[in-house]
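Appendix B, record 7
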Amino acid sequence: MDQLEALVGASQLGLALSGFAGVVFALSGREAIALPENRHRLRVLLQNGLAACFLSLVPQVLWGLVPPREVWVASSSALLLYCSAATALDWRQASRDRAADATVSRRISRLIVVSGTVGAVLIGALQIANIILWRNFNAFFLGIVFVLLTAGIMFIRLLTARQSAE
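Structure tokens (predicted):
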């Protein structure tokens, strides 16, 4: 599979996951979305699905305009910026949610929180290494896969939360 074909596939998958966010929202009802952890999951699902779509388009737009190694520097820079901002905003919102409802922490899987945070830090470090050293497709694409994986996990968590509420 060609690199640009892989990126088109990742972009389509990101768009599909974002569409699932709308379906989940429509099927969940107000009581499921009333919980702050479910609003967070829905936000991360939509945000990461769209981010994967748009971040996959960055190298496609740059291809042919700049040298190939610079395409991956710019793409990894955009991914690093997104992951940094999204992680910071998620932590800020989680702090607000915990301040508003002390029981939120008991309803959220510590494993998912820790693994998501560690994964984001590792992907960030990988993107920094790609910007400085490697300047290749593989490190960038692994970052896109992580963003899609996070969106997929949030989709599954929303579905399981809906089933446990029934």
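Remarks on this record: The first helix runs from residue 3 to 33. The radius of gyration is 17 Å.
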